[in-house]
Structures are given as C-alpha cells and as structure tokens.
Amino acid sequence: MHYGTLATNHNPTGKFLSIHYSFQKIIKLFIILFLNIKIL
After folding, report:
1. Where are the chain's structural domains?
2. Span 2-31, pLDDT tens digits
3. What pLDDT, on the 0 to 100 scale, is given for residue 27?
4. Cβ–Cβ < 8 Å for 14, 4
C-alpha cells in the first residue's frame, strides 16, 4: 500500500494503478465471501 502512495507523488498513472489494484483486491474478497456463504 505504501508503494502505491509513494508513486502517486510523481505520476498520476501510478495513482490510477494503485486504485485499480486495491479495487481488484476488494472484488476478490467479495467473491471469496460470497462463495463461502453459498457453500454454507
């Protein structure tokens, strides 16, 4: 997480990439939770 915030100081594309990767992590967490609920 700190690497992404440091990259934002120099280039806006790094900011977009850090937001994109964090969004992917959130989506993966939701998918895992949804699958666990369906199994239960």
Report:
1. 2-39
2. 454 554 456 677 787 788 888 999 999 999
3. 95
4. yes
CA distance 7 to 30: 27
Cα 18 from chain centroid (whole Å): 7
CB 5 within 8 A of CB 18: yes
CA 31 to CA 13: how far, in whole Å?
27
Q: SS3 sequence, 1-40?
A: CHHHHHHHCCCHHHHHHHHHHHHHHHHHHHHHHHHHHHHC
